[in-house]
Amino acid sequence: MAGSVVVPSTAIQADLVAALVRFGSATGQCERTDALGGLLNVLFAPGPAGGPALPAVEALPQILAANTFLREAVFNRLAAVLGAAGGADLFADSGLPTARSFLSEASDRLARRLLPEPRADHDLAALVRWLVLRSPVAEGLARLDTAQFGDLVQVLKPEDRPDLWTGLGLAAADGFRLLAARVLDTGLHPRLRDRLAGHRISESPAHRLFTASAALADAWDAGLTNDQAEWLAAVDDCQRAVAGTRAQHGAEGVSVEVVFSLDVLESCLRRMRLIAELFVADAERRTSAPQQLVVELAAAVHRDRSLRDLARRSLRLLHRRIVDRSGATGEHYIAHNRREYWQIWRAAAGGGLLTTATAAIKLGSHQICHALHVAPVVEGLAYSLNYAASFLALQHLHLMLATKQPAMTAAALAAIVRDRRGDDRIEQIAAYTQRICASQVAAATANVATVAVGCFAFDLAWTLVGGGHFLAAAEAEAIYTNFSPLSSLTLFYAALTGVILWLSSLFGGAFDNWVAWHRLPQACLDRGWRRIGDGLRQHAAGWGTNVSLGLMLGFTPVLGTILGLPLDVRHVTLSTGQLALACASQPDWWRDGFVLLAGSGIAVMFVLNLSVSFLLSLFTAVRAYDLPAGELYRLLRLLVSRACSRPLAFVLPPSPHQLNQ
What we know:
With 661 residues, the protein is mainly alpha-helical.
């Protein structure tokens, strides 16, 4: 490279000059790309503590101004790199949702991580990916404020070289066109056309946006300053249509395909706004817009390789399919005033009495199956039918079982966290959580108390009619041993039951969503099947939850027997009923230390059944709504503080002060 270079005064400047000289002297495209990667490594390397965040970036204007030949050589090589690479895909595809299946996309990303990736010097998207992943560009850009980035743009976009970034501007315009075409294709897809397009295709916001975008991009190519008012109006119409469709979609059932399509539309519209900011006449916006777009593209490069990001986005789509339907159901399990609180007590007391019959039938079925030596599958089927019938009876008699509450109330809580706004939102959410806890404690206490009293009364009636206790002494002692947290796997079984309770809520939400999405209630009404249609509309979630819960509770021990694994269930209300029947069968039950151990096992079941189910459901809802972890941490701290200062607020019915929050 001809010309002399001014000697730098610091080590950082020396490294920067060396990287600039190497880049300015590079000849072929591969050599230029390698040299550019080295330059980026030096340019965005963090500085020592106490100094500038990016000292090389601050030194760049001074070095280029003092070295004319170096400046010209660097700009010539930069123009050669950008001019030889087509870049529409960089703007139109990087970081945006892909329609490929999860397994296909995951395997491709894993291969890119494990296998050496060939460099494509003539594809700007691949070139930027190769450069960004091998340099601290993304981290460095995050350290620059708007003024510093503006200074960097001013240095790299000199007035005497208007051709330097022309190719990149044309690539941005082509990427803008591709994004508009994707919005049109997605918005007019059959799954969204009826909801988004209106009666005519020409009236669709997606079609109007495509037309306005084409005109805007043509003006950019011609070097004209085009008024963006018409295009911005079309973008606003699209965003309103997407928001309206999302709200309507949640009410009618959730389809993963539709949620994905709406996410695609929102992502494309957001990227198009960033690109459009590059071409506005406002000097201030033309300074800040490139930084936003460059930061977004650098982050997009990392998202395209991230297995974690892919899993998070895929799980969110799956969770949304379930949680949106569960949240509305959860409101019915929360007492917002004293009348509703005592209604929960009454419904849970009735549920406990009905569970008395369920526990007795379960133990009776166990005796019959063992006497007849039936196969484990038949025994599991008998248990499942008993549980499912009992749970369905609870539903249609408007009674309540405490263990079914956490999964639904967690979804309702997550919806509240998502929807509440304002400075006092954490206080509002904490007060709402107190109501959930009080409602849960009321239902669980009523369940346990009434099932225990009911089982003692059942055994007394059985004794008066049959002349003997319902359970033999050996069976009662076996129950004591099986429920002890010291001599059995009660801890594990209780946690496993919490997982089963959570899974049943997922099945219930998925079934309710499937019914709503396929509009089965309306189809039944159209055929004159009014009772079936009304039943599906009102009870689909409950039917799915109750039947799946009964099957899983009944067949989990059978599965353990078949696989040779220690699998069993410990449901707090059903187990309380069985323990009460065992105690009633032994007149001196209170004198035996085993009953204390079995009672502590019931307490363990109470805690693990409810907490595991609630936490798993809350995690599912947080994933579905993409809630920030920081807000949940603040909420947790506030709840712990309130529980220490006002513990009774989590147990007693809502006070007038709570209701005003």
